[in-house]
Design a protein that fits this description.
Radius of gyration: 16 Å
Shape: globular
Strand content: under 5%
Number of domains: 1
Number of helices: 10
Distance between the termini: 25 Å
Order of helices and strands: HHHHHHHHHH
Length: 194
């Protein structure tokens, strides 16, 4: 399974990413303790020492970090101006969390088939196989990632079903990590690996 290490993205990004955190499926509560720090970073300062090769991909990482800390409005402001599959993906996740499920599906239609779908499908299957909750059955059996089915799963979670919600939050965390990593890899030239 994909291994996510915040340190791989540099000190600025790493300070905003707790790899153990499970974001809410819904809007959550804005983490006001990091708001001023988040406002001080941009595409030129998020990954210091790493030349930006695709500004929109780095903007996707910024959108993701705002979303990670439950700042849906700020994440939305960034992602809605990124006219790529990855920008639409961040936009779709944000609307899924609002929750505005039909609008999320609109943005996922614009995503098309994203490169993270295969590792996300494999990772979701493993997470679901390790869970005893029946809501993961569809995730175990899927042969390809279906973002619309995942939106439906998130919408169907009963507030008192903590096991089901925990599984879906773990899958959503994996999705966030894979998309962040993808945007990073295509957004900057990682001079440490040259």
């Amino acid at each position: 399974m994909f291994r996510f290490d915040p340190q791989a993205y540099g000190v600025v990004a790493a300070q905003f990413i707790d790899p153990g955190r499970l974001c809410e499926l819904g809007p959550g509560s804005e983490n006001r303790s990091v708001a001023d720090q988040l406002k001080s970073i941009d595409t030129d300062t998020l990954f210091p020492g790493k030349p930006v090769t695709d500004r929109d991909m780095v903007r996707g990482c910024l959108s993701g970090i705002w979303l990670f800390h439950d700042f849906l409005h700020e994440s939305h402001t960034i992602s809605q101006d990124i006219s790529s599959s990855s920008g639409s993906y961040w936009h779709g996740i944000m609307h899924r969390r609002e929750p505005d499920y039909s609008n999320s599906k609109h943005w996922f239609r614009r995503v098309g088939r994203h490169e993270i779908f295969d590792p996300l499908c494999a990772g979701a299957q493993k997470l679901a196989a390790a869970s005893s909750n029946s809501s993961g059955d569809s995730l175990k059996l899927q042969s390809s990632w279906d973002p619309f089915a995942f939106i439906d799963l998130c919408e169907s979670v009963v507030p008192n079903s903590a096991d089901s919600e925990d599984l879906l939050r773990r899958v959503a965390r994996l999705e966030w990590q894979l998309l962040f990593d993808y945007c990073y890899r295509y957004g900057v030239e990682d001079v440490t690996n040259l």
